[in-house]
Amino acid sequence: MELPATRAGHVARAVSATAILLFLAMPIVIILVTSFGADGVGTFPPKEYSTRWYEQMAAPGGNWATSIALSSLVAALTTVFSLVLGVTAATALARGRLPLHAAVYGLVLAPLLIPQVVIALGLFLFFEPAGMLGSPLAIALGHTVLAAPIAILIMISTLRGIDERLEDAAASMGASRMTIARRITFPLATPGLIAAAVFSFITSFDEFFIAQFMSTPDTRTLPVLVFNALQFDVDPTVTAVSAVLIALAILALALVALVRKLGGHRHDQQGVLPVEPLT
């Protein structure tokens, strides 16, 4: 029998939850406030407020703008590679009958368990003889090693949530595999695809170890530049960059939540099966 909650219990839970949330949010709040400081030390709280560090970060042709552009390019390539691998591997694992299914599943998840510095060293030894260090393509392929397992997990969960009887019904009515995928599977899996793309992009954009091993003095991603800026000195521009990364992560999570909500609402209002003939 569950005991009734008292007023003191409600107050204690509310206070505890608020204290935990404030503790977790404190570093984020400090970074956001410090990023608007006018001094060149990065003190908290700032004595004067300014947007000078954001202006320096976005200055055309500067190191920060160049690194942001490179990280965006690498993250975009990583997202494409991860989605292709994610959809393919997830379909095989969720719908296929592979031999040694557990071993294959464990191999897919291995990059999430192995220390990233070990993976970075292996990629360095692989790409260095080919002269591909510093190439955005090589960095993107390296990031795909970490981002693809996340995309695969999301797509496996998404595909397992789709009723296979819908596809069987369409097949019994003469729909081809491509038509079933285009008209049923992919529309129902759209929230999962967007979530996989968002998390793949964020994983690549924030990754440091692989980018550090694969970068050159002329090609440095944003996390590598942040590390270099803090290695010997404190550059307040880092606080502005960190604030932008925080905002990007929040927007990404909000986008995933919105897409999932809209997807569920659309299915509730219109039904699961399309009304047009599957031809």
TrEMBL record:
It comes from the Bacteria. Keywords: Cell inner membrane, Cell membrane, Membrane, Transmembrane, Transmembrane helix, Transport. It is a multi-pass membrane protein. It is found in: Cell inner membrane; Cell membrane. The keyword Transport applies. One of its GO terms (biological process) is transmembrane transport. Its main location: membrane. One of its GO terms (cellular component) is plasma membrane. CDD domains: TM_PBP2 (cd06261). The chain crosses the membrane at residues 20-44, 64-90, 102-127, 133-156, 184-205, 238-259. Signal peptide: none annotated. InterPro entries: MetI-like (IPR000515), MetI-like_sf (IPR035906). Residues 68-257 form the ABC transmembrane type-1 domain. Belongs to the binding-protein-dependent transport system permease family. This is ABC transporter permease. It comes from Streptomyces azureus.
